[in-house]
Design a protein that fits this description.
This protein is mainly β. Helix content is about 15%, strand content about 45%. A hairpin with a 4-residue loop joins strand 1 and strand 2. The longest helix has 29 residues.
Length: about 250
Amino acid sequence: MKRTIAKKHKRSLLAIISLTIACLLSNSLQAYEAPYNIPVFRHVLKKAKLQFPSKEQRNFGAFKGWASANFYLSKGRYMTFKARKRYEKRIVRSELRFGPGGWLVSSKRAKLLKSEFALDKPRSIEQITILQIHAKKPSFPLLRIVWLRKHKSLKDHLWAIVRPSPYHKKIHYIDLGKRPNNRFTRVSISVRNNRMQIWLNKRLRTTQSLSQWRGTINYYKAGIYLSGKKDVGMATVRYRLLEHKI
């Protein structure tokens, strides 16, 4: 009789523990608001998929009512990406890849990406990629908009890193200025007729030839990409504007 009561008590206790865990998990999932909830991001999310931490996490357009610890709406208005790099030499991302189809740099119609983002300065990360133009084959970035803790004696600056050709490793660094504290930076990118233009806060900052990339299929990316070989730590970026037009 006592054994039977003990078994029943044990089963009841296990049921209570399981229910508690389920509630905690449910509350954790409900704590994040979906960026799709506000109209300003719906159009761009319909044409994107999310890659986290290295592969696809959400397919193209599958964002309605969905959020996670690495992709969520903060303060009811900012689409927020968060990524933690726990090991050296590992690549980690929380990043939108736009598509599903790509485009050519030779297109007569401009391929546009407009963004306004705020980047929290990390404690231990040395570099963060925020925006990209990436080629499908060969798989190289034509452009990366990055934050570097220090480069060419400049600390805490944003940079445009341009690779003029897929056949050479040479890259160009274009200084976009010091990362503003508690303010948003507006970066717009346009590609047409084998030329790329980058605007910083609505002012044209650079025009670059992409003629060596003629024939490659390309796409835009936005979010967080952590690739520093010795970096370990957390990075967060918030967008209040993100538009993609091809």
